[in-house]
Structures are given as structure tokens and as C-alpha cells.
Design a protein that fits this description.
Helix content is 6%, strand content 28%. It has one domain: Alpha-Beta Plaits. The chain has 1 helix and 7 strands, in the order E-E-E-E-E-E-H-E. By secondary structure, it is mainly beta. It binds iron/sulfur cluster (SF4) (2 copies). The site of one iron/sulfur cluster has 14 residues, from helix 1.
Length: 83
């Protein structure tokens, strides 16, 4: 079974296959710009592996858990997350 989200394809085990225009991209761990983050928590629900928590009013990403899917990047209203 496959889930289709924003051009990404991943299977039920979250083994990611990145597909876009038939090319394969390697992505990177997401990082948060703490100065820009306003702590709105919008990114928390976008993460399929619960890698994001809010600590002291700022988003924190567990790099060991992050599977580099990119969902949180587009989910941040102030563009505080990048890869
Ligand atoms: S890139 Fe994906 S897996 Fe990593 S923190 Fe963002 S939503 Fe979660
Ligand atoms: S969505 Fe953006 S501003 Fe909101 S908590 Fe996450 S990183 Fe911070």
C-alpha cells in the first residue's frame, strides 16, 4: 500500500522513495531556524514519524527519527524549516 503526498511516495514502513518528474532525489534532515520559529505547532502534525516536538516554544526535530520526507518544510507558515 502506498501513500501519495506532495509528490513523495512512501510505503507502509516509511521506506521513502522520492519521485518527482521521474527523477530520484536524495534529501536531508530537516532543521529549524529557532529565531524564525514562532512555536505555532503546525509542523508537528505534518510529520509521519512524530520527529517534531515543541520545546520551550520552539520546534525541535529529532534527527535520528527524521526520515527526510519534507512534509514539515512546506507546512511551516513562516518558513522556519529547511532541509
Ligand atoms: S522532514 Fe519529514 S520526517 Fe523529517 S521532521 Fe520533517 S516531516 Fe518529520
Ligand atoms: S510550523 Fe514553523 S513556526 Fe510553527 S512550530 Fe513548526 S517550525 Fe515553528
Amino acid at each position: 500500500m502506498y501513500n501519495l503526498t506532495r509528490g513523495l511516495v512512501y510505503n507502509a514502513n516509511y521506506s521513502i522513495i522520492y519521485l518527482f518528474d521521474k527523477e530520484v532525489f536524495l534529501m536531508a534532515k530537516a532543521i529549524v531556524d529557532k529565531e524564525t520559529c514562532v512555536g505555532c505547532e503546525a509542523c508537528v502534525g505534518t510529520c509521519p514519524v512524530e520527529a517534531i516536538t515543541i520545546d520551550s516554544g520552539k520546534a525541535n526535530i529529532n534527527a535520528d527519527t527524521c526520515i527526510e520526507c519534507g512534509s514539515c518544510v512546506s507546512g511551516c507558515p513562516v518558513s522556519a524549516i529547511s532541509q
